[in-house]
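Q: I have 185 residues here and want to know how they pack in 3D. Can you give me a structure?
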Amino acid sequence: MEQEVWSSFTHDPRHAEHAGLRASDADRDVVRDVLVEAYADGRLDREEFDARSAAAAAARTLGDLPALLEGLVAATSGALTPLGSDGLSILTPVQIEERAVAKWREERRSAALGFVFASVITWTIWAAVMFGGFPWPLFVMLGTGINAVKTAASRDELVARERRRLEKRQRKALGLPWKPDEAQE
């Protein structure tokens, strides 16, 4: 998990040569995702979650980010993973496949939760305001349900897309050219 978090950044923020680089939205999103997971697990209380989230949103450089993950992600990994020139770990094909499947599972879970939350909220509003009237929450359920079914049904496509993204990122980290004919689109 720890190595996966650090390899998710555009450049490893733990390395001094990257500390002065400007943080991207994607880098701040990595921190936000870790904070959300830690809050959901009960490792952060609401006050600390809010403070760290605000600091992540305001972070300007990569050097600002590791402190926000302190106590949540190990600063160093126990495993000796070879690193590319930009600090990204070198993954085996099995690890790439595992991460691609994990990404699909997360997208599937998000789509299902979106369906459930939107349905519960709209049916609650309908029941409170116009019980017995036209059941308009069915349209919300239809829209979010289509997304949930599409995400669940397109496993192979989503896994393949994420696998290509990870392979491309790894080739870039190793300084190898990405050949368009390798992308199977």
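Q: Anything worth noting?
A: The chain is about 60% helix and 0% strand. The chain has a mean pLDDT of 83.
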